[in-house]
Amino acid sequence: MYLSKVEITGFKSFGDPIKLDFSKGITAIIGPNGSGKSNVADAIRWVLGEQSARTLRGTKMEDIIFAGTEKRRPLGYAEVLMHIQNDTGDLRLGFSELVVKRRVYRSGESEYFLNGAPCRLRDIHETFMDTGVGREGYSIIGQGQIDKILSSKPEERRNVFEEAAGVYKFKVKRVEAERKLEKERENIARLDDILVDIETRLEPLSDEAEKTKLYLSLKEELRKVDINVYLEETKSLEQQIIKLNESINIVSNSINSSVASREQILQQENDIKIKRTQLQIDIETTLQQILDIEKSKEQQNSNITIYNERISTSKTLLAQLEIEMQKFEQQRFDIENEIKILSTKRVAFELEHKAKSESLGSLIEEFEALSTTYNLYKQQLEDINEDKYNKRRQMDNLKSDLKRNEMQIKDLKNRQTFAQDKIATYKTEIEQHQEEFANIDTEKERLSNLAKQQQVDLEKLKQYQNDYKQIYAQKEDLERKLNLLNQLKNDFDGYYKNVKQVLQLKNKGIRGIVADIIEVPKQYEVAITIALGGAMQNIVATTEQDAKNTILQMKQKGISRVTFLPQDTIKPSHELKDKEALSKQAGYIGIASNLVAYNKQDADIVSNLLGRTIIVDTIENASIIAKKFNYSYRLITLDGETFNVGGSLSGGSNKSVTNNVFSRARELKEAKQQLESLDKQLLQLKNADAIQQECVLLEQQKDNTHKQLVALESNEKLYTAKIDFIKTNQLHLIQEIEQLEQTQTEVLQNSTNKTTELITLEAEIEKIQSNTLELQAKTNEFDAIYEQYSGQITTQKLDIAKLEQSIENLVDTKKKLVIQLNEYTNLDFKDRKQQYLNDEKENLYLISQVTDAIASLSNDLDKVLVQKATLQSKQEELNEQEQPIRAELNGLDEKVGLLNQELIRLESKIESLTEEKNRLNQYIWEQYELTEGACAIYDSHMTSLVEMRKTQEQLKLDIRQIGHVNVNAVEEYNELLNKFTFLTDQKNDIQIAETSLLELIEKLTEEMHAIFREQFSQIAINFNTVFKELFGGGTAFLQLTDEENILEAGIDIIVRPPGKKMQNMNLLSGGERSLTAIALLFGILRLKPSPFCVLDEIEASLDDANVLRFAKYLESLSKDTQFIVITHRKGTMEYASTLYGVTQQEQGVSIVLSIELEDATNYIENIDETR
């Protein structure tokens, strides 16, 4: 079996899922400090069921979930899966691979899985129990656990040894058995209470059950009478309904006869209606024919009108065509003349255009020559004007600069004055703040001393208050314990049932049991309990008569037998004849009656019971005394072994004879004494409320002092900031004054330079002004000439453009006239004239055809009118036949109506009787859940209905006289009786189980004792062997602190390194301590190899030479145990077959890398360099 793979998601620094594959041998996990490599060991420890967040280096279990970084959000859960190859079958589960998974959410909810199936934490513990893996195993060892093994108390080292010795599973079973035993004893106590309660309830419930039986008997008799009354009443109702149904049949027959006659008459009426309907259809058909003929005539007349209109249109078109032909000839002649005129005009326009174009060319040449000279003068004038403008602008700028300099000098002087005034103000403020500083320091020192004193006072008050709370809590616990003991005493808890019943009678003269009248020191409780045996619950009576009276009452109540000890009849035992000789024997403690305390009045009873019983310390001494005095006396040891008179001997475990009834008086007395002591302590302390108020008041004073101190410190910081600010401003102002003085000098020099430049510019502007006047005169002269030539050129261009436009218009007009002339030439006037003549001829022919059709339609119309008159005559004859039939139908309808009214009356009466019957059915169903058919079987043919009603009323009266009845009493009584029987059997079963558990615990203890002794010896031998190999000599021992009680004894570790004396672990150096602990771990692994072992930097404190020894020994053990070593030591890495590196490329997120041996060497060298 070995660990093959671990998968981690969201555990501690592993924000991304990682997977680690492990092979047999040694696997090393390396990484810089803080990279998260130890989180791998924590993940394995956690998935195996670790419940302590502190062990996992957290404060609560939610801390192990990845908390996120600046760039990553926190995760909602953590999950670890551990794959174990069970190829050797060490885990008897029937699986070749076991996958253990654990998941925890931020809500605190945890889940456990084995091979994907949900399971309990206990299932995981039991799976790995006795394998060295798990909660109490030695498979995961960290540096802190090494120190814990070495530094802890001897008793606290047992867990590792018990797991290695293989007794841990027996210990778990024994603890479980003891827990079950305690639970079974609690169950027996509860069952006793329940059984007593049931017994008190059975008798009254029995009386109530008898009353219920009488009630149910009367109810059953009433039920029979009710059913028979119901049957009689329903029979009467059914007979009435039958008679009414017969009357309904007679009326229905009359209605049917009248309806049949009416149907025959209706048939005659329908025949007439059919004939009349047919005539109506024929008349409507005839009328439709008339309408169709008249519509056809109107259509034909409309066609004649249309044809005449077409003939008129054709004649009109012929006349228009003649006029159009004449007009066309005239237009054609006019167009041809106009074309000739346009051709003549075009020639004249072209000649004029040519002459004007030549004149315009000469004029343009003269104008261009003149423009060149004009532009030259104009450009010179513009240049002079621009120069003049620039000079003037410079002059204006100089004047503005001079004015601005004057203002700047004035402003500089004002700012200089202001700065000097401000500096003086700042000096005054600094002097004031320095005085305030001195006051603040004094007050701050005073408040600081006051705060320290208040803190001291507050700590004293809180300690005072804590002492009060602790004592008060102890008092409350004692009061609860005292109340519980008193309650147990009052409830006679632990007493025999019959004894408890007698004491509950509270009869006069009954004082209690023997255990109540004596007080036994704790060390003698077992011996005195054995000495008294059953007599401990004998009842003490004041007189014999009191006992007799109680026995008489017991017989009346059926209480079983008990033994009474009347004070006036019990005689003390005879004094021992060998008393003096016995007292001189080794181990002799005393006579039992002399070792207990009791009242004087009970001396005879105590002497009678304990006066001849001798208490001895041990069984060996008791045996010697018994033999010496020839077994003449009853001897009992402190552990309860008994030597009886005659030589018999009894003994065994004391747990079964310990009796709380006997020790209750001692516990009550001790609790009262402790309570009185606590009350005295509380009286010495103040009231809790007063302490609380003082604490609150002092806290407030402390807070006020702190606030004042904070305020002073705040003011101090404020004043310091102000002074710094003022000094900084003062420095800035001094620097600014120096800057202002320098700036003022520069501005004055600049003003002088600007004034000189201004004078120079004014002279240049006067010279430019003179040149401008000369050029302006020449330019004005050229402007007039330029204007003249421009006007002539523009006029010539307009004339030429007009001529060009006229020529273009003539050309367009001519084109349009030619096109129009061509269109007139192409018109077909002859075809259109012939078409109009043909249309007129065709329409005249159509008119003659339509006139013939109208004549034929008029003949058809006359025939249809004659047919219509005949049909209307037949219709009037049918109307006269229908009148007498309608009168006969009205008479029959009136008769049927009267008969229907009678039928309704009869049916209503039947409905009323039916409702009464249904009411009776409903009543019998609600009362007894019986249908009408089911009631028939209860028909007992009783007396008349009147007699049955009397019986019915009498039964109801008898039932009312019984009063309230618990109808479930019989059932409850039977259930309670069955429960009593069941619980009694259950108590017997639990008592048998109690005996079996006691035997199991004894057996487990014996097995644990034998196994642990044998295995512990072997571990000690292995430890010594490995110690010598790792240290190169020396000696190491493992020693039990109590050889007699090896299952509870602590374990001491004693070593002697080579060249040193034998010494305790605490005197060794850090490296020696670690190597010793490693030797102990390797010694355990030699005895019982764990399938895998995780070692977390346990060799960190070793020097290089010891690291190599450790690594070599680790390699020798890796044949039987798989090792996963978290390390940063070079010597350990060199012996690893697989290397994993843990690093954090992103802050707070660990990743795992598979590392080559060469990279690991470089990593080792880097670590060495940093050291």
In short, what is this structure?
By secondary structure, this protein is an alpha+beta fold. Helix content is 70%, strand content 10%.
What spatial order of strands do you see in the largest sheet?
Answer: 2-1-4-5-6-7
Please give the share of residues in helix: 55-70%
CATH superfamily of the domain at 1-139 and 1092-1171: P-loop containing nucleotide triphosphate hydrolases
Largest sheet: 6 strands, antiparallel
Please tell me what the overall shape is. Answer: flat
Tell me about this structure:
- The protein is α+β, with helices and mostly antiparallel strands and 1171 residues long.
- Among the domains are: 1-139 and 1092-1171, Rossmann fold; 495-658, Alpha-Beta Plaits (2-Layer Sandwich), CATH 3.30.70.
- It has a 6-stranded antiparallel sheet with strand order 2-1-4-5-6-7.
- α20 (1104-1117) links the parallel β22 and β23.
- The radius of gyration is 67 Å and the shape is flat.
